[in-house]
Write a structure and sequence with these properties.
single chain, Malate Synthase G, Chain: A, Domain 4, 2 domains, 16 helices, 43% helix, globular
């Protein structure tokens, strides 16, 4: 039986205190809509021109970290900072920055990844430190000179002690370059269930550098599965049923908003992953209705901004944001003091009435097969079934399969999810995609098998997949 964690007793004096994070810099006061994507040259230009307030250039979940992608990504970032970035497509179409562009924020790879092309004392260095440090070293002073600053998203934290480590790194880096402490601003993705129990402590540790918290919903679901993968009472149903309205996800979102506004930080909503289908207006209409409902709920709850995956979503979400904020740049004045979320509610992992279906199992097989196949070919952001899939959603799928097999969970028709059933469906889904000899599907199937039918739960899929790169 797994031990269910709760709020930390040793940090109770921090929670509810009247301390505040540093005031937001001028170009991070308005963050109603943010867009994200990998540091691909054309995609960066389109994102910066998309009409959003903030663009998060992503070296993490949407980047396949080939050495070429990583280095070209750094070059593209430097060109974007200096406004020299341009691109001409094979058909001769030219792309360049508009006069007014989004504020750029950078996200490095997580602390679980290494960069094998750079050695420190003979060992591969932290990919997180490589991405972050190279971007900061090349661009911090230039960003400051242009009236902005070195702004970052920090991912996958699980505790305030990791936040303390990042704060020390920020201070050392600023001292090394001779720029004032507090110039760096970081928004922390709360995308692990343990971090949800330490949101105030994380903000407190980073209070000189903190810009806000973001509700990283997809990684959060993965974390809930991963941390309690062996806990039979906490098995989740089909991933499509784990929405932001189920009780444990609702508790997480409300606590994040309350925490941020109590301490003067921005509360950022989650990702709308839908990609409009211009050839199927019916699909687009249904999806847009769901996104509208999702974003109305976020802004009504008190979020200061939210994420979208595609520029076509910007006008609709901007309309919702403007109507909700009533002309204000944010709604940090909404303290939500009536919100009283307990650690028991955060840890009440489950979906009332949820079911595991054959279609859900097949989707959980097909999505990571397609995603890993694409990742191995250098593409980390993949449009599948009108959704933008990245590492986080692939992680949800494969971790659910492992959990269902491990606990002999039953489909709604009564069949248990076994290794044999998984292998049967994996063969069938692989055949639909062209079989093991198509593209990199043979490698993708081997990786998925390793992740799903091993006795021990593997913490992350990316370190395994990364070994397939030269």
């Amino acid at each position: 039986m797994a031990i269910i964690p709760g709020f930390l007793p040793e940090t109770a004096h921090i929670r509810g205190g009247d301390w505040q994070v540093a005031p937001a810099p001028a170009d991070l006061i308005e963050r109603q809509i943010e867009i994200t994507g990998p540091p691909d040259r054309k995609m960066m230009i389109n994102a910066l021109n998309s009409g959003v307030m903030v663009y998060m250039v992503d070296f993490e979940d949407s980047l396949s970290p080939t050495w070429e992608n990583v280095i070209l990504g750094q070059i593209n970032c430097s060109d974007a900072v200096r406004r020299t970035i341009s691109f001409t497509s094979p058909d001769g179409k030219s792309y360049a920055l508009n006069d007014k562009t989004a504020t750029m924020v950078m996200r490095s790879r997580g602390l679980h990844m290494t960069e094998k092309h750079v050695l420190v004392d003979g060992e591969p260095m932290s990919a997180s430190m490589f991405d972050w440090g190279l971007y900061f070293w090349r661009n911090a002073k230039e960003l400051i000179a242009r009236g902005t600053g070195p702004y970052f998203y920090v991912s996958k934290l699980e505790s305030h002690l990791e936040a303390r480590m990042w704060n020390d790194i920020f201070n050392d880096a600023q001292d090394t370059l001779g720029i004032p402490r507090g110039t760096i601003r970081a928004t922390i993705l709360i995308e692990t269930i343990l971090a949800a129990l330490e949101m105030e402590e994380i903000l407190y540790e980073l209070r000189e550098h903190a810009a806000g918290l973001n509700a990283g919903r997809w990684d959060y679901i993965f974390s809930a599965i991963k941390k309690f993968a062996r806990h039979e009472a906490l098995v989740l149903p089909d991933r499509s049923q784990v929405t932001m309205t189920v009780p444990f996800m609702r508790a997480f979102a409300l606590l994040l908003i309350h925490t941020c506004h109590m301490h003067g930080a921005h509360a950022m909503g989650g990702m709308a992953a839908f990609i409009p289908n211009r050839r199927d207006p019916v699909v687009t209409e249904v999806a847009l209705a769901k996104i509208r409902e999702d974003k109305l709920r976020e802004f009504s709850d008190g979020c200061d901004g939210t994420w979208v995956a595609h520029p076509d979503l910007v006008p609709m979400v901007l309309e919702i944001a403007e109507a909700s904020l009533g002309g204000k740049p944010n709604q940090k004045d909404r303290a939500r003091n009536a919100v009283k979320v307990t650690d028991v509610e955060i840890m009440a992992i489950g979906v009332p009435g949820g079911k595991i279906t054959e279609s859900g199992l097949r989707l959980n097989i097909s999505i990571p097969l397609q995603y890993i196949n694409s990742w191995l070919q250098g593409n980390g952001a993949v449009a599948l079934n009108n959704l933008m899939e990245d590492v986080a959603t692939a992680e949800i799928s494969r971790s659910q399969i492992w959990q269902w097999i491990h606990h002999n969970a039953e489909l709604e028709d009564g069949r248990p999810v076994t290794r044999a059933l998984y292998r049967q469906m994996r063969e069938e889904e692989l055949a639909k995609l062209g079989g093991p000899d198509a593209e990199r599907y043979g490698d993708a199937a081997a990786i998925l098998d390793t992740l799903c039918i091993t006795d021990e739960f593997i913490q992350f899929l990316t370190p395994i997949t990364y070994e397939y790169f030269d």
